[in-house]
């Protein structure tokens, strides 16, 4: 791993990150090794966020820097499969908000997850199809409207009725979603922010 790349990624020093990625690429270092150094730096960013040294703006910036750097080597696909498995995410039906979902998608991707983003206004059937197809350890349901709490509850119940709840944890998040709402929806966890999502999902990664 490149110590300089890890530290510059952790410090959000975009110029040095891009300079180092180009240098490593020119030296023949593999895309996977470069991505691993970037992800190590992102892990430090996550720790600093949890310790309140960084805030949401820094978290978003880190994802943007990561994406720009990964594009220099052909993107995440060039580096091979994501090391942390699959995470399925979508905004519940009747809700078309996507900013929070998009932030989570970017942060999760830059932390080594293959994110299957189902988009917004996602019907229950689409969540069920994705769980059957991708077999994720965790499914994320985004909801930014209190009027859609019942939709999330119904979706989670349908996932359970389909016999897909045993091997899949369900994470919910969004501005108005607090612990009480999560309990009402019968979710496994309420994610307060993108880093919460990363930390929770990493618990279920097979070592």
Could you name the CATH class of the largest domain? Answer: Alpha Beta
What share of the residues lie within helices? 40-55%
Protein structure class: alpha/beta
Q: Major sheet: order of its strands?
A: 2-1-3-4-5
- Let me know the largest β-sheet: 5 strands, parallel
Q: How does the overall form come out from the CA principal axes?
A: elongated
**In terms of per-residue confidence, which ranges show pLDDT below 50 for 5 or more consecutive residues?**
none
CATH architecture designation of the largest domain: 3-Layer(aba) Sandwich
Please count the helical segments. Answer: 9
Number of strands: 5
- H/E element string? HHHHEHEHEHEHEH
Q: How widely separated are the two ends?
A: 20 Å
Can you put this structure into words, describing what you see?
α5 (99-110) links the parallel β1 (86-91) and β2 (114-117). The chain has 9 helices and 5 strands. The two termini are 20 Å apart. It has 207 residues and is an alpha/beta fold. The mean pLDDT is 90. The protein has a 5-stranded parallel beta sheet, sandwiched between helices. It folds into 2 domains: 3-79, Orthogonal Bundle (Methyltransferase, Methionine Synthase (B12-binding Domains), Chain A, domain 1), CATH 1.10.1240.10; 86-202, Rossmann fold (3-Layer(aba) Sandwich), CATH 3.40.50.280.
């Amino acid at each position: 791993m490149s110590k300089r790349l890890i530290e510059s990624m952790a410090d959000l020093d975009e110029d040095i990150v891009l300079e180092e990625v180009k240098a490593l690429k020119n030296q023949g270092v593999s895309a996977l090794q470069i991505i691993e150094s970037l992800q190590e730096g992102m892990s430090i960013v996550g720790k600093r966020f949890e310790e309140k040294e960084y805030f949401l703006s820094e978290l978003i910036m880190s994802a943007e820097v990561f994406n720009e750097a990964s594009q220099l080597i052909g993107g995440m696909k060039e580096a091979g499969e994501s090391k942390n498995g699959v995470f399925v995410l979508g905004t519940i039906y009747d809700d078309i908000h996507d900013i929070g979902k998009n932030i989570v998608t970017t942060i999760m991707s830059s932390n080594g997850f293959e994110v299957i983003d189902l988009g917004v206004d996602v019907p229950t059937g689409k969540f069920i199809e994705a769980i059957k197809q991708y077999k994720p350890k965790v499914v994320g349901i985004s909801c930014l409207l209190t009027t859609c709490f019942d939709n999330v509850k119904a979706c989670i119940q349908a996932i359970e009725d389909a016999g897909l709840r045993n091997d899949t944890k369900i994470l919910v998040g969004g501005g108005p979603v607090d612990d009480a709402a999560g309990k009402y929806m019968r979710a496994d966890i309420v994610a307060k922010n993108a880093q919460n999502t990363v930390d929770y999902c990493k618990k279920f990664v097979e070592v």
